[in-house]
Design goal:
The complex is a heterodimer of chains A (245) and B (296). Chain A has nine helices and 13 strands. Chain A has 245 residues and is α/β, with parallel strands linked by helices. Chain A has two domains: 126 residues, D-Maltodextrin-Binding Protein, domain 2 (3-Layer(aba) Sandwich), CATH 3.40.190; 83 residues, D-Maltodextrin-Binding Protein, domain 2 (3-Layer(aba) Sandwich). In chain A, strand 9, helix 5 and strand 10 form a beta-alpha-beta unit. By secondary structure, chain B is mainly α. Chain B starts with 12 loop residues before the first helix and ends with a helix. Chain B has a single domain, classed as MetI-like fold (Orthogonal Bundle), CATH 1.10.3720. Classes of the chains: A alpha/beta (245), B mainly alpha (296). At the A-B interface, strand 1, strand 5, helix 6 and helix 7 of A face helix 2, helix 4 and strand 2 of B.
Chain lengths: 245, 296
């Protein structure tokens, strides 16, 4: 008797929590985990970086339970729409092409110019030569539409390696990612040419049908912008960069 | 791991390495070697079952079953593996969730396909959204293992089918003359002997399977290739143990691992061939017999 009650009770609770969404089920946050400082897997094997902190804070404010899922960049959009996780938070710039397939929240990181990096001492012409970029990024699309030749790689790491081993003359990527690499290269690599402004800001990718989650996240992002938390986090992870929201 | 690992920047030489190689991330790398063995352990029985059933279906007297066997082996062997590996887990996953959705949420009125989105109710999610990440990963692993089994099972079916056909017709006729039923002929003559003919093909398949295990990585399972690439990648000052691009070193470790595995398999299959051909009226069986005599 009591057992039956317990079971029906549990079933009822389960039914309610799954329909009333904001205070119940876990939101799975999909990220690449290979693009420091935006997101990376730290030495403890956990997702770390700017987006980890932003994501955790957003979930806290929206009163959501969140877990982190690592997924390859290549298949990060297909796996979102097929429901393997509920958000993409992976340094993904808001573009009209992506917006046709998924929806974006408002930006939590402003438009960031992309920069070229080549071996130190290379002439500025290398930006018109063979340029490496990660597959399905705004940078790859930009190079493809310019006079330069694009070589695409699955991971950011490989794009830099291609410059080191001479397969590509230069690499085009987000400035913040390359800045770390250049600093750590002991003068082997250097910025080259002038930065190019491509892409909108970075937003969280959400299924088009998931309007409720998008609204929740937008509210949380707005509150983080309003009280200056986001500005602080950007300064912390991007060498004191100051962004006004 | 060790007590002195608190401040890695102050360490060098042996101490630095002992700390570096025992980070949680490295432990995950070591554990992922078990994933490879788990995949082999799960898929090999399934491959043999699929292969055997496929072969039996192709030998069947009933046309629909034979057609099924032929369709299975032809289509799976003809379609590029990579398409199958990407298609089967996603199709299975969505198929299961679709069925669960129909059963568990009959009141749901929204369409499941909304534009590009595949939307089922929370209760129908497989595994449930609230379960731990490792359960999601294990589930993904088994879907991947099933995809492997379906693909390799088709190749195995062809090999086993060929092996059954390779058994001399005279022996079957002898069986018939002795009044054995079709089933008895299969169990007493064909089944025990076919292994000798199937083994070269199956051992090829095993070698290809070993080499195909890194495809797990494409299916989102964090296997040795994932961790080697992740650990080997350039680590900037944001990490506790910064280093340059060490992927070459990590991939050499994988190379040695795969070579060792292939080498051990080779030894195993040589022994197995000797065993299954024992006493058979084939060249291999004869050699086996002779060597057996000389050693005794």
């Amino acid at each position: 008797m009591t057992l039956t009650k317990l079971i029906t009770g549990a079933a009822l609770i389960a039914a309610f929590t799954s329909s009333a969404f904001a205070d119940g089920h876990t939101i799975r946050m999909g990220t690449e985990g290979a693009y420091p400082p935006y997101n990376f897997v730290n030495d403890s094997g956990e997702v770390d970086g700017f987006e980890r902190e932003v994501g955790d804070e957003l979930c806290k404010r929206a009163n959501l339970n969140c877990t982190w899922v690592i997924n390859d960049w290549d298949s990060i959009i297909p796996n979102l729409v097929s429901g393997n996780y509920d958000t993409i938070i992976a340094g993904m710039s808001i573009t009209s092409e992506r917006d046709e397939v998924i929806d974006f929240t408002s930006e939590y990181f402003p438009p960031d110019p992309s920069t070229y990096v080549a071996l130190a001492g290379a002439s500025a012409d290398v930006v018109n030569g063979v340029v490496a970029a990660q597959t399905s990024t705004i940078q790859a699309a930009y190079i493809a539409s310019s006079s330069a030749t694009v070589v695409e790689f699955a991971t950011p790491e490989e794009t830099v390696a291609a410059v080191r081993n001479g397969e590509a003359d230069a690499v085009l990527a987000d400035d913040a990612y390359l800045a770390d690499i250049v600093n750590a290269s002991n003068g082997e690599l250097a910025f080259v040419g002038s930065p190019v402004a491509i892409g909108g800001g970075i937003g969280m990718g959400i299924r088009e049908s998931d309007t409720e989650l998008k609204a929740t996240m937008n509210t949380a992002i707005a509150s983080m912008k309003a009280d200056g938390t986001l500005t602080k986090l950007i300064a912390k992870w991007f060498d004191g960069r100051s962004v006004e929201y | 791991m060790f007590d002195y690992c608190v401040d890695p920047q102050s360490l060098d030489g042996f101490y630095w390495w002992s700390c570096y190689l025992t980070t949680v991330k490295h432990i995950s790398f070591y554990k992922s070697f078990l994933v490879v063995f788990a995949l082999l352990g799960v898929t090999v029985p399934l491959i043999l079952i699929f292969g055997f059933m496929g072969a039996v279906a192709r030998q069947s007297k009933l046309y629909p079953i034979r057609l099924f066997g032929i369709t299975y082996t032809s289509i799976v062997r003809g379609v590029p593996d990579i398409i199958f590996f990407l298609f089967v887990p996603i199709a299975l996953d969505q198929g299961i969730e679709y069925l669960r959705h129909k059963i568990k949420c009959p009141d749901w009125t929204d369409p499941i396909r909304q534009g590009n989105d595949f939307v089922v109710c929370q209760l129908a999610k497989m595994p449930m959204g609230s379960t731990e990440q490792w359960i999601h990963e294990t589930y993904g692993f088994f879907l991947a293992a099933l995809a492997f089994s379906i693909v390799f099972g088709a190749f195995a079916a062809n090999t086993i089918n060929g092996a059954i056909n390779a058994i001399p017709r005279a022996q079957i006729e002898t069986g018939v003359a002795y009044g054995m039923s079709r089933k008895q002929i299969f169990m007493r003559i064909q089944f025990p002997q076919m292994w000798a003919y199937a083994l070269p093909g199956l051992s090829n398949l095993w070698m290809i399977l070993i080499k195909a295990t890194p495809l797990l990585f494409l299916l989102g399972v964090q296997d040795i290739v994932y961790w080697a690439r992740e650990l080997g990648g350039t680590k900037t000052a944001r990490f506790t143990y910064p280093h340059e691009d060490w992927r070459l070193g990590y991939f050499i470790v994988l190379l040695v691992f795969y070579l060792l595995l292939s080498w051990l398999s080779e030894i195993f299959f040589n022994k197995l061939t000797l065993k299954v051909t024992k006493g058979q009226a084939t060249l291999s069986g004869m050699n086996n017999k002779n060597s057996g005599k000389s050693s005794s």
